[in-house]
Amino acid sequence: MRDLFATLPDEPAPPMPAGYLDTVLTLGRRSARRRRIGTAAVWAVVVLLLAVLVVPGVQLPVQTAAPSTKPSLPDRFAGYSMLTSTVAKAPPGRAVALYGYGNGETFNMFQSLVVGADGETYRRVDAMEDRSRPSALLAPDGTRVLLGDDRGATGDLILVDLTTGKRRSIPLGAPVGVRLLAWSPDGRHVAYSAGPLTGSGEFGTVNVVEAEVARTGTLRLLDLSTGRSTEVPAIRPAWTAAFAPDSRRLAVQVGQKAHLIDLDGHEYGSVQITAGRELAANVAWSPDGRFLATVPWLYDGPFNGTTGGDTGHGTFLWKVGNVEFVPVTGASTPPAPVQDVVQLLGWRSAGSVVVATINAAGHASLAEVQLGSGTRRTMSRFDTGHNCELGMQSCQVFDLQLATGLVPDLTVRHAGRPQRGPWPAALTIPVATVVPAAALLLWRRMRRT
């Protein structure tokens, strides 16, 4: 090698072009800046992905915000999502609505949901899912849900606190079949029907327990403050019921007669109900105490306390009928019937009601109707698009209730982004693992390049 280099001409190196060193330093600095910017961009993307994907799925200590002055209803209910968290994991606070949502054409993909009265909060009522979505009642103030058990005879009712997520068991004594009827406006008492079941073992459908108890059950009044139930043997079989505005009286339908009783079970009057009709469950009594609202049976047929009729629990909103009013006393002239109603949901005032309606395309909505004039104002709509059952079926609504005590003060809010709470751990953990790993691999590849 020395000999080889010795043969090279001993000439000085050619001079570098003018400004060459400055150009090289500039390009070097530019390359270093690009590498730093690229690295920063990769980590910015990582942080953004973590914020968008992982943070919503992480359960953080949350203090439930104080209710706003006015409860509100979204102008559009959010669509179906399997990422909706539960009441137990993330208590939603007071709710404006409780309803079933989903479809079961191919897969049984149903959810029991509550919607916040003070924001875009959606939660699954996991206590209901644990009992195969039984019939339930939403408290008038929207803070609690009471549920029975449609799988067979039960020895307790479950009271779910929506502000804390906690459950309370209310013993019933010997196991009985239960049908929940009505919740008093002051939130203290619940009327339900209970009776022995002739069937054995677990029932295959959610409607069997309610239907049998409706034909054989005896009225009971539950005092939630003490957990004690008082049986009213004379009111049997109790079909449907509604409390008076003062919470001290209630109307209970047996056959085609509504018995008017007080909290001690003493009857002081009765109202005849037209054949083929029943009291609007839980919401029949008008705020001024003058009228009882009635609706058609879900299915036509005779009902004499032992046959016919149907509870409608677990049935999609579909049958359009009308709401008729009967006076509690003969001195009052009832308003004209409200036409084209799927379900009566509550009273805004003595002169207006909130109803569920459905159009020819099967889309459900909520509307306020002025009694007498029949004037309607749409308050909210349900998203019934084809996003259920993995996008193969339209979504359907059933077992819809509003927090009746909030209805008079309801405002309508523009529906924002749904707040569904923390994701399930089965989804959060893989996302939290895969996203940083992918970002690290991308960063190392860019660094080599």
Describe this structure in words.
- The protein is of the alpha+beta class and 449 residues long.
- It has two domains: 17-51 and 430-448; 71-422, TolB, C-terminal domain (Neuraminidase, 6 Propeller), CATH 2.120.10.30.
- The chain has helices at 2-6, 20-54, 126-130, 207-216, 425-448, and strands at 72-74, 76-77, 95-103, 109-116, 122-124, 136-138, 144-147, 154-161, 167-183, 189-195, 218-223, 228-232, 240-243, 249-254, 257-262, 267-272, 277-279, 291-296, 321-327, 338-341, 343-349, 352-358, 364-370, 376-382, 396-402, 411-413.
- Helix 2 (20-54) runs antiparallel to helix 5 (425-448).
- The protein starts with a helix and ends with a helix.
- This is WD40 repeat protein.
Brief summary:
The chain is an alpha+beta fold and about 450 residues long. The chain has 5 helices and 26 strands. The chain has helices spanning about 1-5, 20-55, 125-130, 205-215, 425-449, and strands at about 70-75, 75, 95-105, 110-115, 120-125, 135-140, 145, 155-160, 165-185, 190-195, 220-225, 230, 240-245, 250-255, 255-260, 265-270, 275-280, 290-295, 320-325, 340, 345-350, 350-360, 365-370, 375-380, 395-400, 410-415.
Percent in helix: 10-25%
Strand residue percentage: 25-35%
The main β sheet shows up as: 7 strands, antiparallel
CATH topology heading of the largest domain: Neuraminidase
- Overall mean pLDDT: 85
Task: Give the strand order of the largest sheet, numbering strands 1, 2, ... along the chain.
Answer: 6-7-8-9-10-11-12
Shape: elongated
The CATH class of the largest domain is identified as Mainly Beta
- Uncertain stretches of 5 or more adjacent residues: 52-65, 200-206
Structural category is: alpha+beta
Number of strands: 26
Number of continuous helical runs? 5
Any idea what the radius of gyration is?
Answer: 31 Å
Q: Determine the N-to-C terminus distance.
A: 35 Å
Number of separate structural domains: 2
Q: What is the CATH H-level superfamily of the largest domain? A: TolB, C-terminal domain
CATH architecture of the largest domain: 6 Propeller
Keywords: Membrane, Transmembrane, Transmembrane helix
Protein name: WD40 repeat protein
InterPro entries: 6-blade_b-propeller_TolB-like
Transmembrane segments: 37-58, 423-443
